[in-house]
Amino acid sequence: MTDAFAILDYVRRHCLTPQALVQAAGLAEDRLRELVAAGCLPQPTYVLDPSLAVRSAIRSETLAPKLEEWFGAAVLPWARRAAESTLPLPALADRLRQDFADDFRQALLVSEGRVHGWTELFDAAGAIDEAAFTKAFDEIWRESWLGGAYGVCLRRFDGHHLVTKLVERSRIRALTAEGVKPALTAAEAAEVTTAMARLDAVITPFAPHERPHGTPGLWIDRIADRYGLPHPAAPVDLAAAAA
Predict the structure, then answer these.
(1) What is the pLDDT of residues 144-200, one digit of tens each?
(2) Coil/strand/helix, residue 203
(3) Residue 229 and residue 188: Cα distance in Å, rounded?
(4) Domain that holds residue 173
(5) Which strands form 46-48's sheet, in the order they lie side by side?
(6) If 0-12 CB within 10 Å is exposed, 13-18 middle and 19+ buried, where does residue 67 land?
(7) 3-state helix, strand, coil in the chain (%, to 5)
(8) Cα(223)–Cα(215) distance, integer angstroms
């Protein structure tokens, strides 16, 4: 079991409380709740249940007397955009969604997604398959972004970060045969090292209980250790960088 205090330390260093988010974005806290409810901004990235408590023969103490929430640093640029907008909430939700669709499409077109990570979104001629794009985009926006998942794993929620994550993860998986290849050639080792650095540049460090089973644990830590490759540079404080 992961040290609960290590998890708390992570979210407090890398994420923003609702109060910190609204202050940095220039929003009222009530407005933040309205934006989340309207599908303009995602749900909180992490939630601490108030049942967490410590007991002794002398005293019991609830470590979180009330529910605590944190938003990933990737939410802040979107909150700032929402704060600047004068559109009604439904129109704002549509605008934000369409803007990301356009950015995602452009990032795909200039990426190696035809070979790595996003192959199912392209047709045989190398053009975007519109039906596949629409289906994937709907899931990305509604479930993974508004549902909070991409606040966990991406440093920024934009086309470049999203596309790069899957391209580089797919590249590493291909070069290492899903991490079970006995050894890498010098050229393969160099390519994997570069891919890990690119991957690390767009993903968060992940909380301690998530990292071993998530992208950085499986496709950076495990791969670097298995093949004796250098780990990417230590991550920065994401909340401070976003602010």
Answers:
(1) 999 999 999 999 999 999 999 999 999 999 999 999 999 999 999 999 999 999 999
(2) strand
(3) 11
(4) 4-242
(5) 15-16, 68-72, 46-48
(6) exposed
(7) 55, 10, 35
(8) 11
